[in-house]
Amino acid sequence: MSQITYREAISAALWDEMERDENVFLLGEDIGFGGGAFYITKGFQEHFGQDRVADVPLSEAGFTGAAIGAALNGMRPVVEFQFADFVTESFKMIIDFAAGNHYRNNGPVPLVLRLPAAALVSAGPFHSQNPEPWFFTTPGLKIVAPATAYDAKGMLKSAIRDNNPVIYLEYKKFYNYPLDDLPEALRLDVPEEDYTVPLGVARVLREGEEISLVTFGTTVLEALEAADVLAREGVEVEVIDLRSIFPFDKGAILESVKKTGKLLVLHEARKRGGVAGEFASIAAEEAFEYLDAPIRRVGAIDTPIPLSPPLEKAYLPGTDEVIGVLRELAAY
Amino acid sequence: MEGAKAQASGIPVTRGDFARLDYFEDLQERYLSIEGLEARWHTIEALSLGDDHDKFMRLHHLVSLTRAVEETLDSAFRSGHIPGTAFFGRGNEAASVASASCLEDEEWLIPMHRNCGSHLAKGHPAASIMAHFFGRAGGPSAGRDGNFHMGYHPKKITGLISHIGTTVPIASGAAWAEKIRGTDRAVLAYIGDGGTSAGDFHEGINLAAVKQLPLVVIVDNNQYAYKTLPKEQFACDSIILKAPGYGIPGYLIDGTNALLMHKICGDALDHARSGGGPTLIESVTMRITGHSVYDKFTDYVDIEMHSKWAEERDPIKQLDVYLLKNKIATTDEIGESHARARKEAEKARDEALKSPFPDPRTITDGVYAP
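YS: structure for the whole thing
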């Protein structure tokens, strides 16, 4: 057991899976010789060779398609996108080819697409996006969003062993987050030995009786911070990290809502068209009689992601906004 | 050699005028000095089939069966048995069969929507193909998709999607898997003349070239991308001129000539299997049909030119004549091969029509792989 960073956890999962299964191979821009834009695969090529840690020409659609072809032919490719934003280049390959292939042709596509996602200090409109709404409506895909080093490692192992295409969102903000600065609930020991975290199971980060706060990804930070403030005001908020966006843990959401009677769904992605709408709808449809207040959503505002610090701050959902909504719910 | 003379006297070649039967000679004059490019036209030589009578007859039967299956499907569409639409490869039968029959059982085929012959040559049963067209449970997609959007994984044939161009990167990846595993297997893929304009064509070929992947890509230049002609699709005289740009060999061949395709594709696959990297083959044919069964193509094609191709360059007639002339088969044997093909196609249709429609209760089955 040890405390390692989120980035080290992802590297460890990749390394372990490559040692475990020779069909696992990595491809992406700059990942071999250069070790990747975020140094996730630093030192991998020296150990595993150029065939299994492959640099590719700048061609997201092409190398995503090639990963699908390799998966059809028995491999388990793990594709690194330099930034999640560039996945728009590959939509047809993911949504039209990979996602439905098993349904149409009875052929599994075991494929992991690693997407470094979300905002990080003025990265601007094309290096900051949260891509899950783009994929959420497509059957055949799994979408996961680990927020802790423990989950990053265990869920990446599960994703690699899964026989379906998995969109693995990894958060740049967490890569090198100082361990000492992390809230207690996120600072989990990471085993060196093999373990997996199942896809589709939420984690309760903090128990509470009065309001359910369902979230995932970077906003677990704002959620925990806001819950601390509310606790000091005498309101116990239950914070649930979904960890997996599809399949998602419907049972965990409903169970919590039935207990608290109040629900806030929070994510960094824009509120309009964000996946919070689906979770809120499910609570409205299936736990209506338990609700004591309107379901609330908090997400980014309805603009492109601006670069300049004050604009970026205004764009992103912040702890103050979450606290404000929690107070309204508490008073309702 | 009228075209070559025209070139010699300084009259420029009309860009992409593949419909002219002498266009090839113009290209030969112009480009064959480029290293790595080769063109074969109007000739059948150095056959890799040797004089193996059975091999010739198997090829003949598959080419004939391809046409019989497509004609049977066409009439089944007219009788209302095909939901949606259907695409056929009339004029492309020889190129499909002759290329795919160069593959070993364990090698992957990445087909397009006019490669019925490739499916048959790779071992996809005609009755399964037809059940797919009829939207039946017995087809390889069990009614989830139709027409030539189908894969057949038991015989290592991938499916395809409507987004033209995507087959090339998929094929590169399948070939990449062979290279990583260190096998001596190659992969064969198809794309059309229209597909070469798609970015995916470039990305897929470039990746295969950079990684020296064991891949053969056949561009079926059937001179129409729906209603668009090659001259509106690309500005060079032949698609193989792109091959030197990627640093790979390219062949321009007459795609109506089964034996020529068999030889060239077989050599290119051997080159790939022995670590030589990818090859691009432009196979010039003529789409003697509409884009789909709904396309009234007679309102935009040059009917006279079409008839000329159907008459002079029909791939099946050419094969018949070759086998007779070289005394490889008798008139009776050829007639028997055609009759057997028709009978097989009808039997496959009857079998496919007996397959039930899918049960709506199965609609959610298989969205995710176990």
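YS: worth flagging: The longest helix of chain B spans residues 53-78.
IM: good catch. Also The longest strand of chain B covers residues 215-221.
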